[in-house]
# Entry
Amino acid sequence: MRKPNNPAISVMLLTALMSSLSGCSHSASDEAMARDIQGKISSDPDTRDSPVSVAAKDGKVTLSGSVTSPAAQQKIDQIAHEEPGARGLDDQTTIQPEATQAAAAPNPAPEEPKPQPIVIPAGTVLVVTTSQALSSKTSQAGQTFLATLAQPVSVEGRTALPKGATLSGTVVTAKTKGKIKGQGELALALTSVSTKGQTYRIKTNVLSSTVKGKGKRTAATTGGGAAGGALIGALAGGGKGAGIGALVGATAGFVGGAFSGNKQIEIPAESPLSFTLTAALTLPPPAK
# Structure
């Protein structure tokens, strides 16, 4: 018995077989493509934190899930487009809300450095002129006197205390010299400075001068400072203290501007004196 020979049926069977083989080949290629893209996304430092799923069909790649940032989304699209065999891309990923908010928020302006306080160090000399006369005969211990800053004080090129600032001081000791025995003594120190409407406590050395014996006099500086405690001579502009010379030395103090008939220590008004800070003075930052 002879088998039927129908060419049409043979062609149909062959076509079906080839289609089946082609479908299996495409399916295998799509799966391999999806795995490869997924692996690249997982290993790339810019995209590995984004939970994205990859699928492929007939060469078209579909992405789903969420990404951590717009930059990560762009990088994932690039990986998919560059995959060999990819014929199209359907990106269904969404950007995580916090990343969207961060991208939309304006960058904060950098903070300007805060102005720093001005610190006048210990050892700084304050040159002042007295506002009133002081005397071992007429002044009293504990008495307050005023003075004016004769020279500005600067720190790192900035004026910390301007010329003309008001200072307050105290008479530490005032003793009248007796006609027969005993010594005259006058000691002064500054206690505060006022500038820009504010008053600040300060600590300075003590300037002291004594007269004893037959008109002999000595001068000393206590509380720190060497030549910083010297009574300086005339400043620009003169004044009643213009004739007072400076006493310079390791223990220089001040010498009275003049002696009265019974050799008392006298400091006339507007006499220039120099005091030395024994503790740093901190002032607020300058206003802008």
